[in-house]
Amino acid sequence: MLTFITYIFSYSFLMYAMLALLGTSVLSATVGTYVTINRFSYIAGALSHSILFGMGLFNYLKFIFSNNIFLKEYLFTPLNGAFLSAIIFSIIISFLYNNKKERLDTILSAICSIGMSAGILFIFLTPGYNQELTRYLFGNILLVSANNLIILFIFALLIVLIFSLFYKKILSIGFDNEFAKIMGQNVRLFNTIFILITSFTVVLLTQIVGIVLLIALLTLPSATILKFNISMRKTIFLSGILNFIAGFFGIYLSFKHNLPSSPIIILILGTIYIATFLLKSRFINSFNIFFKKNLK
Predict the structure, then answer these.
(1) CB 266 within 8 Å of CB 217
(2) Could you read off the pLDDT of 85-117 as tens digits, one per residue?
(3) Which of 112, 270, 142 is nearest to 210 (CA)?
(4) Dist. CA 285–CA 296, nearest whole Å
(5) Where do the DSSP E strands lie in the chain?
(6) What CA–CA distances, in Å, run from 114 to 80, 97, 296?
């Protein structure tokens, strides 16, 4: 373990991975907690799969305009395509969700299916092996670049600022939409903003664990901490710590045994979640007995 820690400061890719893990922990703790409380995980899941449309489209356009260096290298990148898809599908979801035009599960199923199908079609139409898109499907925190880190940290700081300034509104809307409406909160606007925030978070986290495992990273840490029935502020703080610890050991095991990091991180978080679920009642009973004895 000590050797691995020294390697972190010796190899830039490990340092980048740890910094990416820090930014990811902030997003997982803040946005993930809001997603879990509001039961937005299905929305996040639909968005994570639908962004394949933008990735596939821009990858195809990158091939079409391969003679233009600017378009190829800077405009038609999978990340830009993912952001475009995220914006388009977020607006559609938020409009239909706020206006109750259709059942939410039907909306999400349609968007997920359409986005993935269109993305797969464009991938098929693009000649050659699409290695860059494969990385977004399964993710690899060890391949995060300096540019990706800058975008990740700017967005993470923005999220921290939003949660700091609007914490009470986020708390009230997160736990009870109807009560928030009675109190004069603009619930529709907040839902739209947070669906957009969720979509951007989804795009950034695909670089870490990929589309396939993204929802687990976004929800498992906060879902684990929420089982202890503590405040939202403490949940955000502790789920961030949990995410970072699981990520650190996941990267360590990946580096030591030459295994893919993303599945290991998710397996650690999943094991902790299941263990918490199974042992929760036992811990609560022990705490109750302890406090009763001390009160006497």
Answers:
(1) yes
(2) 989 988 888 887 777 666 777 778 888 888 889
(3) 142
(4) 17
(5) none
(6) 19, 18, 62
As a residue count, the chain comes to 296
Integer Cα distance of 35 and 112 in angstroms: 18
pTM assigned to the model: 0.82
Using the structure block, give the residue that is written with the tokens 């290695």: 131
Task: Tell me the per-residue pLDDT of 44-56, one tens digit each, with 9 for 90 and over.
Answer: 888 888 888 988 8
When divided into structural domains, the chain yields a total of 1
Q: Which residues contact 69 (CB under 8 A, 6 or more apart)?
A: none
Reduced to 3 states (helix: H, G, I; strand: E, B; else coil), residue 101 is coil
State the CATH number of the domain containing residue 155.
1.10.3470.10
Burial of 294 (0-12, 13-18, 19+ CB in 10 A): exposed
> Which SS3 state, helix, strand or coil, does residue 145 take?
coil
Q: Is 285 helix (H, G, I), strand (E, B) or coil?
A: helix
Best CA proximity match to 35, nearest among 231, 130, 139, 170: 170
DSSP state of 258: T
Residue type, 133: L
Residue 204 domain boundaries: 2-295
d(CA 226, CA 267): 19
